[in-house]
Structure formats: C-alpha cells, structure tokens
Amino acid sequence: MKKSWVVAAIAAVLCVVSAAGAFAAPAAKTLTIGVDQEAVGIDPHIVTAFSSMRRVDLMYNRLVRLDEHLAVVPDLAQSWDIPDNLTYVFHLRKGVKFHNGRELTAEDVQYSLNRILDPKTASPGRSYVSLITSIDVVDKYTVKLHLSAPLASLLDGLTSDNCSIVAKEVVEANGNLQKVDGGTGPFMLKEWVADNSMTLVKNPNYFEKGVPYLDKVIFRVIPEQTSLLAGVKSGDLDLATINDGAIIRQAQKESKVTVMSKPGLNMRIFSFNTARKPFDDVRVRQAVASVLNRSEILAIAEFGMGKPTGPLPVSATQWALPVSKLPFPKPDTAKAKKLLAEAGYPNGFSFKITCSSTYEGGLAVAQVAQNELKQIGIDAQLEVVEWGVYIDKWVKRDYDTMIELRGGSGEPDRFLYRTFYSTGGVNNFLFKNADVDKLLDQGRTQTKPAERKATYDQLQKLLVEQAPCVFLYCPNENQVVSKKVQGFKIVGNGSLFYVTYTKVSR
C-alpha cells in the first residue's frame, strides 16, 4: 500500500462523528465531485459522452492538450517540429509511466494513433487524424507523423480525449478500455460502483513532479441537480457540474459556494435522422428550423444562461458567423407552413423526439420545442429514455429526431468535419451532401487564414440551409465549487483536467 493511501486511511479512521450523528469528514486530500449522470465506458478512443470524458481527462494524457485559454500546450510531447505542412515530429517526455508501471515510448504513440485510425475501432477521433498516412518511430522518444495533405487542425485535434495515448497490453488483455485504466494520467482508477461512484487515486509516478496535490478524487452520481447544490453547501461534495440555469441562479446567492462560469464551446442541437421520412426531405427540416425559437428555448430551458449559435460555437469568434447572417435567423411560422405544404404535409405530421431527463439528454429543450412545433400542426411526441438507452439509440441511429449536446471546438475543422462529413465519425444524422463534403475537404487543407475563413463562412450558411440539425445555442459551462477548494480552473470545453492542480482545505 502506498504511503499516501495509508495516511489518508488513518485520517479517515480518526475522524470523529459528533453526538448529533454527523457524517465523518473525508480525508484531507480527497476531492468529491458531484455529477448528474454515469460514465458510459471509459475507453478514450471510443467514448463520446461528456460524463465519460470528464473521467478520461484525469486518467489519460495526449501528445498535446488545451489550457484554460484553449491554447495548445505540451502534454506527453514536450516539444514538436513541423518541417513542412505534411510532417509533424513529436519529442516525448522521458520517464513517463503508464499506471501499470511500464515506461511510455514512441511505440505507444504509434499504436494508439493506429488504433484510432483503424475503422474497426469506430473512434470519433479518427476524423481528427484521418490524413495521417504513416507513423514512424524515429527513436524511443521521437515519433514522426506523415500526412497525405495539409491538415490545419491537426494539433488542435490531437488535444481531444479521443486521441489519448494508451497501453497496448491493457487493451489486448481486456478487449477494450471501457471498464479498465490503461493511461498515464495524474489519477488512476481504483474502484467503480456502477450508477453510484467512481474512485480515482493519485498516480505517484506522474511525470509532472509535485502534482496532483490530491490523494483521491471521487465522482458521485447524483441525478438531481438540486441535490448537487445541496451537497456542495453541506460539504458532502466539493465540486459539482451543474447546468440547470435555475439552480445556478440559486447558487449565485449562496454564501457557502462559488459559481464558476464561462461561455462554453458545447452546442445544443435538434438532430434529424435524415434517412427517415419525412426528414429525408430538406423542406421538412427547414420548416422545423423556421419555427424553433432559439431565444425562447434558451430562456426557458437554460434561464438565459447561454447564447444562440450557428454551426460553430459563438465563443469561436474568429470563425463563427452570427445567427443574424445565417438562414432562418428568426422564427417564421408562415414560411414554415409554406415549406410543409410544398413537401406534401399541409396538415403537419407526427414524430418522436428522443431525449433523456439528464442534462445532456435535453428534456427541457424537447418540451419547449414540442410546444413550438404545434404552431405548424406538427405533433411531436417525447420519447424520454434512460441515459444508457439514449446513448444506444444515438450510436445505432435509432431515432426520428433527438435533442443533443455536442462537444464543440474553437477550431472549425475539428468540429465540423467529424460531425457533417458523409463518413464523419459522429455524423449520426446520416447526412450526405457533396457540396458540404467538398467545402470540408477544402477547409482542412487550407493554411492561409483568410482563405479558410471564406470557406467556413460558405460552409456555415450551407449547413444551416441543408439543416441536418437545427443549431440552437451554446450553454455556459458552470461549476459550483466549495469555498474550501483552491486552484481549480474552468475550461470552456467542460474538461476537469485542472483538478490536477486543485487543493482542498478542511
């Protein structure tokens, strides 16, 4: 048993329960995080749910990562060279160890990227690195990537959790990493009690000396967001990801907690299965886009805590076109009815909106959309399912429409290519459009900012017009934190990586 674990255990035993029956205080170096939904597996090359990503953040490293300002900074690679726009050379840190004790080498980078590139893996990260044609192990600590064409978003793409570096032997011993830990990150998986808690412990061999400061991180699954806030107030939780706008406003009035909030990169969308009637007709999709009221949905579902958006997150100011410059900028009921009539549905039709009661599942959004669609004679029935069923339907494309929360990016290629390309890894709309594919291919190979900007401006307008989904809004990223927590930083993409540098005073 590691010395730090012994100290934590002794501290826990010595805690005194008061005569009033209060719970014993947790160990001084334990951070308890409240989340509203369970992880759906923890294999970084496979998972898509934020609930999984937030755990993966702490167990794995990538070649490079994003800091709190969303800038690309070193992670496993301490430096890199780009001798030409088709070649990237990464110089790895020496002495990095996997959680099983083996040293990480360039061969592990080669294995991990090849696993991501293998279509059989079905990795969402494949689109980030799909132009890599070969991966050379130059020496033990140097790896060279060769590309078939310039890929302006490569470094940003490599920051994704889906591009984590994993231990080959752990994958091969278990088939995948959905229930086991094959990483090098600041924390290691110790225990996972399904639908209850996940316990991570400090990696004593982490390559960044002196961190993490914590001995243990516990994720507790608490579906009710009111209970999450109550937990932080009472001290049972130290930190909670809370997305309900009403609860956040309540938390802002509480003296015992701090609300950390910033504009997020994530995006709420209303998705269509374009292979199912009537949504195989663009006019029907456009009719729905014409009647949904972004501002009303945002006000009711999020208490206004977010911003309406187009195909790129509004906080990606270098690239994102404002909603006012895109098709269907405001609700237009007359136009929506005209489009339905032209498509052969003058009296509307019925369909299902798949959603879940968890925040990512968007039940509140679905309820507002259901009411708005009545204006044009559409009967939208809510299919409210458990979170695991929701993910299964998403993966199998088994839905009419679906309310989603997509992970966005400040880099347009990274978000748009995998999402809307005909063979994109997370194109669960089954959307295919030759003009969209052409612009996506063009944008990722352009290295001059002005040329890329023109391409993505055109693409954003085309995507809204073709409407594989309706782009609604970007919610704020919120964390409710105990006053005892120090050093935590919030990242607009929802990452919890800065738990690595967090301390808790008791």
Q: Describe it for me?
A:
- This protein is an alpha+beta fold and 506 residues long.
- Helices cover 31% and strands 23% of the residues.
- Among the domains are: 109 residues, Dipeptide-binding Protein, domain 1; 210 residues, Dipeptide-binding Protein, Domain 3 (Dipeptide-binding Protein, domain 3, Roll).
- A hairpin with a 2-residue loop joins strand 4 and strand 5.
- The radius of gyration is 23 Å and the shape is globular.
- The N terminus is likely disordered.
- Which CATH-level-2 architecture of the domain at 267-476? Roll
| Helicity level | 25-40%
Provide a count of the helices. 16
Classified in CATH, the superfamily of the domain at 267-476 is Dipeptide-binding Protein, Domain 3
Strand content: 15-25%
Number of strands: 20
The dominant shape is globular
Counting copies of identical and different chains, the oligomeric state is single chain
CATH class bucket of the domain at 267-476 = Alpha Beta
For the biggest sheet, the summary is: 12 strands, mixed
- How many angstroms does the end-to-end distance come to? 24 Å
Radius of gyration from the alpha-carbon trace, in angstroms: 23 Å
Average pLDDT, all residues = 92
Secondary structure category: alpha+beta
User: Could you name the CATH topology of the domain at 267-476?
Assistant: Dipeptide-binding Protein, domain 3
Q: Which regions have little confidence, pLDDT < 50, spanning 5+ residues?
A: 1-27
